[in-house]
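idk why but the lab printer keeps eating my pages so im just putting this in chat instead. protein + magnesium ion:
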Amino acid sequence: MRRRLSSPRVAQKIAARFAASHTPEVFLLDTDRAIPYHDAFDSRPALIQIKKQEAMDILRIENLGLTLNERRILDGLSMDIWRGHIHAIVGPNGAGKSTLAYAIMGLAGYRDHEGDIVFEGESLRGVPVDERARRGITLAWQEPARFEGLSVRDFIAAGAKAGNGKRIQEALDLVGLEPSRFLPRAVDKTLSGGERKRIEIASIVAMEPRLLILDEPDSGIDVEALECIFNVLRVLKERGTTVLLITHSLVVLRQAEHAFLICDGRLLNKGPVDKIAGFYEARCAACAHPNLPSAEEGK
Ligand SMILES: Nc1ncnc2c1ncn2[C@@H]1O[C@H](COP(=O)(O)OP(=O)(O)O)[C@@H](O)[C@H]1O
Ligand SMILES: [Mg+2]
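predcted complex ->
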């Protein structure tokens, strides 16, 4: 049956449906296989491809470059982050991972970059951090949050999308903290690092972000809390959150589906997590990376 697409909106809807379903049909829309789709719908393939790309990618990093204090920290980074998937950005210490996270979040001092960061099809150039948060981007810092004096209940409620008590309790349950014990506690140094991290993760669950960036989520916490975070990642994925794990740890890397390996501010390799984990383990873990390997080596 031939059907004419009446408007870009219809095209976008169809592309979004294919992308959301994760079925092989989505590949019908890829550049070199657009013809069958074109035949079937008698539409404009170029338009479909553009919309499909938007439907697939929640975030695109385009040729990102950043110089801080005359040091080149990020250099020509490009990457596509797929909606609803768990990605990792892996690389040795000093590779530029946190800097990339701050640039995506739009922190002051990290916005004056080259290239572009595109979220939901729109450039984030000039968009301040609070607006990025409103659009659904959340960054969990390497250091677990500490807001002295605020109760756990108020801390989670502050960012929660729907501030009802049930949501807050459910979020605490999910991170393995007994709500009746923890809700009235103050977020302060009487909590362990692991507890603070769990509370921060609970607040993120209640926030229902569209894109969650976790910077070194294993830092300063025990194995049990880390396992708990990994479980939460799976729940968030089921709920449609896209996750970007930033890590130099193979254990954390293994939680992702796709990975980008960065070294010295540049993209060295990307692909399914098995491929990248193998490469990272064999080559990067033991390397002090005094020199950036050639692009050929990264293949
Ligand atoms: N404001 C800055 N000025 C100069 N150099 C910086 C600045 N911020 C970070 N760097 C340097 O950039 C490199 C990357 O830092 P970072 O993004 O924190 O790496 P990672 O998170 O991968 O360990 C490091 O060598 C760091 O010392
Ligand atoms: Mg870092």
